[in-house]
Design a protein that fits this description.
Blueprint (H helix, E strand, L loop, with lengths): L1 H9 L6 E7 L5 E7 L4 H7 L19 E4 L12 H7 L9 E3 L12 E4 L6
């Protein structure tokens, strides 16, 4: 009996969600728990976050899920692939911290990520 209780109390609790904060162009904050394994774009679409259009459904064939990532998160994200850079050229007012949210897979490493949504999508 003791071993069963010890396993219960000392087993880490698995949290399948990560907190992502979406900030719209008019400074409305949406702090959402997004299931790990989904993309930041899918989290926005599933939670009706305004400003993420996701016209191609995450196929990296448009730039309508464009976001600005807070600078302190840039080094924590995977590097952009050439295709993402090409699509960002078509985004509305791309910046150094621009990313396509369909290319950001939610994981433990992204728990607490903050993204800003541009005034309009490309």
């Amino acid at each position: 009996m003791f071993y069963i209780l010890a396993l219960f109390f000392f087993t880490p609790i698995y949290n399948p969600m990560a907190k992502i904060t979406y900030i719209t162009h008019d400074n409305k904050n949406y702090e959402i728990n997004v299931e790990k394994g989904l993309t930041v774009m899918e989290g926005a679409v599933q939670n009706d976050i305004p400003g993420i259009d996701a016209d191609c459904g995450g196929g990296m064939a448009c730039a309508t899920c464009h976001v600005y990532v807070k600078e302190d998160w840039l080094d924590k994200l995977p590097k952009k692939e050439d295709g993402e850079d090409d699509m960002l050229d078509m985004a509305f007012e791309p910046k150094q911290n621009s990313r396509l949210s369909c290319q950001l897979i939610v994981s433990d490493d992204l728990d607490g990520l903050v993204v800003n949504i541009p005034f309009k999508q490309g």
